[in-house]
Write a structure and sequence with these properties.
single chain, alpha+beta, Pnp Oxidase, Chain A, two-stranded antiparallel ribbon
Length: 163
């Protein structure tokens, strides 16, 4: 344990490792996120914690859609190529294999085991440098068998982004 019990508690939460895709017109992007969760049953809404200065944040604000791509543990290397910011790696999306979602047009990564297409329904401004974007899941699919214990998480790759 550290000197900060709040950080210790936050670090005890299991975090997934997802690829967040966004689109505004012809401009598309992909980045990794781990602050993602379902926030309601009916309708089915999800929330993502997103840095307000990120390129993706701007695309989602303009396009009002986003995609969540869920990966199998065996496919960790595929998602790692999207970890650098667009500023540091402006060509990173060129390496992505994707098709446009049928409902929102948001990019859906071919290697994802599961995906969700979402339309933005709200935003919670936190004043912390990260906001919570809430989206209604309007389409989804499974591309390969995926059980919850097979879903890629931060501990699977030895990383942490919490506390």
């Amino acid at each position: 344990m550290s000197e900060n019990p709040i950080s210790d508690a936050l670090n005890a939460i299991p975090y997934g490792f997802y690829a967040l895709t966004s689109r505004d017109g012809d401009d598309r992007n992909v980045m990794v996120v781990n602050w993602f969760t379902q926030v309601s049953f009916e309708p089915q809404h999800v929330g993502i914690g997103l840095q307000v200065t990120s390129y993706t944040y701007g695309l989602i604000e303009k396009g009002q859609v986003f995609g969540i791509n869920v990966f199998h543990k065996d496919d960790a290397e595929v998602i790692k190529q999207f970890t650098k910011s667009r500023e540091k790696n402006p060509e990173k999306f060129e390496a992505a294999n994707y098709s446009d979602g049928e409902v929102t047009g948001v990019p859906i990564l071919d290697e994802a085991a599961a995906y969700m297409e979402c339309e933005v329904v709200g935003k919670v401004e936190t004043g912390s440098g990260h906001d919570m974007i809430v989206g209604k899941v309007v389409a989804a699919g499974l591309r390969k068998e995926l059980k919850v214990e097979d879903t890629l998480t931060l501990p699977d790759i030895g990383w942490s982004y919490a506390g």
